[in-house]
Design a protein that fits this description.
Length: about 325
């Protein structure tokens, strides 16, 4: 029995693959390498290069590898770009999830862990987000992830009386950082850590977008969670589903207190040894002061915890990025 990891050659997906392999759960990668990196796939793990939009390929892969379940990480993950490319975003994230579910039903596979996003909440009116906080996504990306959660919910209801009822959970998180393997690093041009790393490597000064927020140091506060912890939570969810244990429809993988952008910048200077004073730019429209999620439910069921300090988050990400350019 195996677990199919869609997007398993990506930054997050390849960490999930490694964690599954370490837990003895026999991962199989499906990735079209649109944003994944072939070298991120661990040696010895079966790799199916192709799109989740290819229903026949998905069903064939599920059958040939006797899949016990799917960890669905693949998707178009750029919230800002999704505003300019809504049709592409919906095709990848909504159609893709629907096709994965269709293939699962045809192949008799009934367990799925969905890699959702805290973007489903949009800009909440509360500073500490819980699972039932109102969902008001502010981008096609956030909307597509929320629709993905609805698809799982509705398919579970539709198959509840069948011999293979769908069992599922969705994991929501904000900013994933760091590295749990020195050969894997965040390649996104839109995330804070790689943006700062590239600036420092180029000898340029990183920028903070606004320092007049209603927070302790004036910069906005977010959850920053280590990719190794995110991967471990996906594995724990898969194990819980496979064991037939009760599971919530969704979990927030949050820190409970968050970090400010200035705290991240200070850690960057400490860890890299590059002394810099960040430039201060204007606020980005729509950026709230503080959004942080509690991880209490996930701690109860998925052994969720923050195992890395901010300096360790920076160090592991920096070392992996430097190794890539060595």
């Amino acid at each position: 029995m195996s677990w199919i990891v869609t997007g398993g050659a990506g930054y997050i997906g390849s960490h999930v693959v490694r964690a599954l392999a370490d837990a003895g759960l026999s991962p199989v990668i499906v990735d079209n390498l649109s944003s994944g990196v072939a070298s991120f796939a661990p040696e010895g793990v079966p790799f199916v290069q192709g799109s989740i939009l290819d229903r026949d390929l998905m069903e064939k892969t599920l059958r040939e590898h006797a899949a016990e379940g799917v960890i669905h990480v693949a998707g178009f993950k750029y919230a800002g770009v999704s505003v300019q490319r809504p049709l592409h975003t919906y095709a990848q994230n909504v159609d893709g999830t629907r096709i994965v579910l269709e293939a699962m039903q045809a192949a008799g596979v009934a367990n799925i862990v969905f890699s959702s996003s805290a973007a489903v909440f949009g800009t909440p009116d509360v500073s500490l987000v819980v699972e039932d906080t109102e969902k008001r996504p502010a981008s096609p990306y956030g909307e597509s992830k929320l629709i993905g959660e609805w698809l799982l919910r509705d398919q579970a209801a539709a198959t509840a009386e069948s011999d293979k009822p769908l069992r599922h959970t969705s994991l929501r998180y904000f900013n994933v950082v760091g590295s749990a393997d020195p050969t894997v690093y965040d390649v996104s041009p839109h995330n804070l850590f790689p943006i700062v790393f590239e600036k420092l490597i180029a000898g340029e000064t990183p920028r903070i977008n606004g320092d007049d927020y209603d927070t302790e140091d004036g910069t906005n506060v977010r959850d920053y969670v280590h990719v190794g912890d995110i991967a471990a939570a996906h594995v724990a969810a898969a194990q819980r589903l496979a064991a037939g244990q009760s599971i919530e429809p969704a979990y927030n993988l949050g820190s409970g207190d968050g970090l400010s952008v200035r705290q991240i910048m200070d850690a960057m200077a400490r860890v890299t040894g590059i002394d810099f004073t960040p430039e201060i730019g204007p606020r980005r429209p729509g950026d709230p002061d503080r959004i942080v999620a509690t991880g209490e439910l996930a701690a109860r069921d998925l052994d969720w915890k923050m195992r890395y300090t901010v300096d360790e988050m920076v160090r592991t990400g920096w070392e992996a990025r430097l190794r890539a350019s060595a």
